Amino acid sequence: MSRQQRDALDAILRSAPRSEKPPTPEEQRSGFAAALTRPAPEDVVTRETVLGGRPALELEPAGASGRGRLLYLHGGGYVVGSPDTHAGLVGELARRAGLRATSVDYRLAPEHPFPAALDDGLAAYRELLASGTDPRDLVLAGDSAGAGLTVATLLAAREAGLPQPAAVVVFSPWVDLTLTGESIRSKEGADPIFTAADVRACADLYIGAGDRAQPLASPVFADLTGLPPLLVQVGANEVLLDDAVRLAGRAGAAGVEVTLEVGPGLPHVFQHHYGRLDEADAALDRAARFLTAHLSAGRPGADHLEPVH
What we know:
Helix content: 25-40%
Number of strands: 8
Largest sheet: 8 strands, mixed
Low-confidence stretches: 301-309
């Protein structure tokens, strides 16, 4: 990363307010939306829809073709965020992969604690399959808490006897609600966005007095056998670094095809800074190629495999 890019990224991150005491959930949601919302790319058409009984946003790039579908679960600590706040990120990934995408507005804590979000993720996945989407034509992605929810959704699908999709990509996954990763402490001074207290506050709202180590809440403790090929991208300067590293390690040990990418000097979900940070654009390109390559492996000769740039 160049000095100019680093200065620009630092300015962006400093513009996001960090409070000593968390405001109300509604205040958090409006602040998050104001600070981080980016619109979908101009060549991506968006429309409101419903999936799995929840509102959702469908994003269709101009270059989308074939049957490939992307199901996306947004980040926000299970407390904030929506398909609207993530329309830019999801739209960019969909555009580069040439895939139609659906981003689900799953229920948020504390009004709807665990397992509400998981139930919504599974319902969305189940409906896509029930409506005729071939799992070989389906890929999943998510960021932060949404990345953990994505992995948990696939675990719940496995338990329900549903087939797995072609591939999954996760950005800066939060997969350990017990906060036992060493980076929770060792990276606190380097992380420009989170402290351990911030992450713990979200866990408190999401799972309360429940078992934080249960695999569907903290997938890093799950048996990941049978999950599809997995790409994990994470920044080296984030308290959730060890969540990503341990998830990749457990996936590999379970026989899952996994790729781990750690970006030096990069913060949480640095992919949000596409168009402003070269590393973000390169990471999204690699994620798109990963997804389309595995769609290709599932359907040799398919016509929807070339990423759109």
